[in-house]
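Async update (no meeting this week)

Hi team, since we skipped the sync, here's where things stand on the single-chain job. The sequence we agreed to prioritize is pasted below, unchanged from the tracker. I ran it this morning and attached the output directly underneath so nobody has to dig for it. Comments welcome in thread, and please keep replies under the output.
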Amino acid sequence: MSADDLVDVFDRGAAHVWWGTAAAPSALSATAVLSAAEGEWARAMTAEAGLRYTAAQVAVRRILAGYLGTDPALVLLGRLRCPQCAGDDHGAPCVVWPPTELSYSLSRSGPHWILGVTGGRRRIGIGIEEMSPVDLDAVAPTVLSMRELSRLRAQPASEGQLGLFLRYWTRKEAVINASGVGPMTDLRAVDVHDAPLGDPLVVRHAAATGPDSWVVEDIAVGPGRYAAIARETAATGPLRLIGNTHPALDLPVPEPVPAGRTEMLETRSTPWPSAISSLSTTSPTPI
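Output:
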């Protein structure tokens, strides 16, 4: 795939979805593309968490650099202000430099990451969750609407309940990532019940500013994982599932960024109730 294969993001309102799994060789050989703040966050984590975080950030930087035609180490990332409270610590991620209309959303779960990219300053949200045990009796009532909770409890087996819960979860995560409100939202009010697997769903969710409805689609990213994407209803061009193969991921490690580069350091926030903190968060910190 060449850079010419990526221009439909800008020209036709398409959205591209990339995903991958943390791998030690690629992460450790490419850490020079990370900002100083990202390196500090990685070192503050456990070895395993730091590796996964680093692998995802390296992949994101290299993929975005492929769209932007620049060195991955020179891409400056930040956050938009929350459209609900105007806070600058949990809004949607953005590319600060180089100047661009590109928008993106990142989610991680365990060793897995997923990245959604679109153009035209259109909002986009993504969510991923790997299959893992969840105390549904304690967690589900805190994040599901009454209709979703009723459907969940009607499932015949615990495995079926967990799968449905994770489907709801990733759809909700995609919507709040797209809107940029993060922890300011009561997830019970983001109803994502209606769509069966594979069918788009229009979800109503409004902040103080920005769109009030989103098209949500489930994404197949391999066994044992659930994923979804949310886009503005007025800007839903073709959806391309690209996966994790891209020449930018095999670029040689660039020279370190000059010491004078400005950092956009974000504070850590928890986008979900504490009762479910074992599940994935949205974008990593810093972006």
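Quick observations from my side:
The chain has a mean pLDDT of 77.
The chain has seven helices and ten strands.
Reply here if anything looks off.
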